[in-house]
Amino acid sequence: MRSVFPGNFFSKLYKAGILLVLLAVLLSSCQLNAPGEDQTTTPAPEVLFTAAAQTAEAMRLQRFGKTQSPEAQSLIETAAGPEPTVTTTPTLGTPQPTPTTALSNPTAPADSGNRAEFVADVNIPDGTAFAPGQSFTKTWRISNTGQTTWTTGYALIFIDGDLLGAEAVVLLPEEVAPGKNVDVSVDMVAPDQAGTYLSYWKMKTPDGKIFGFGSTGQEAIWVKITAQAGAAAMGTAASTPLASSNSVVQVSLSVDNPTVSDACPHTFVFTAQLILSKAATVAFSLEAGNTTGSSIRVPLPARKNLEAGSHFVVYEVILSESATGWARVRLTEPVEAVSNQVNISLTCG
Length: 349
What we know:
Elements: H1 9-29, H2 45-64, H3 70-80, E1 116-121, E2 128-130, E3 135-144, E4 155-161, E5 169-171, E6 181-189, E7 195-204, E8 210-211, E9 221-227, E10 249-255, E11 259-262, E12 266-276, E13 280-290, E14 302-306, E15 309-319, E16 323-333, E17 337-338, E18 342-348
Parallel strand pairs: 2-9, 11-18
Antiparallel strand pairs: 1-3, 3-6, 4-5, 4-7, 7-8, 7-9, 10-12, 12-15, 13-14, 13-16, 16-17, 16-18
Helix pairs in contact: 2-3
């Protein structure tokens, strides 16, 4: 029996069936994303290449324990495109460099050529009282402990506090060789307004370099005064300097608190400083006066054999009633000399 369909009909039908089966398989294996759902993006070939290169290089590093090769780094950078980020893990035991940070504003070493030390307040101990507007002269004794001779171009220079009507720069009165002392005086005026005032000073070289006192060269010397009404009645002997610095003995006096308003009796504590250039027998006594009433009792005179250097003598003076007075130390041996005068005021409450 002869077929009514052409000979190639079944062949075409067979091929079409196979295509339908393949299409059904593909549709069943695919998941079509609905609109609004996350779309899965196929990585670009260069990204896949970069990841593969990084993985291979990491495996090599882990196996051989070596640093990353320039060739591998170049390969990864080229594949990844501009500005790649590659993280490598340092091999254990390999020293890592320590960053070095430069110090800003390093402290300059002290200049051994220019050094100074405070020796003594020749007069005007801390707390000396003056009437407002009263003139006085403050004198310090300082020592050249450096290696350079101070010429008369060197000077004391005001640096802080209250200028107290003084010149801001005061030239030295004479040349001072290393190891020698000099007395430097500054004319000042107590302020018109009552209160306590401090004035700080350092040294200046002829070329304008400033240096201070002490081992660091940073310390300042100062004067501390009190301006108070009625202080003029105490006299002006406190501004009288001591004898020349060439004397065998130099003497100064200070008090713990010059102005007191408290219950009586009250004890004033005076401290005398004796500076000897050589060993000597020294005779000294405390003198005191009351400008408003009865006399002030003071300790008995003393006479001692002292070695060269600085010595301190403490006096306690008890006042049982209000008083305005003064005190000073007088030397009678080996030289005649009088210390600065310290003014005191007591108001019994």
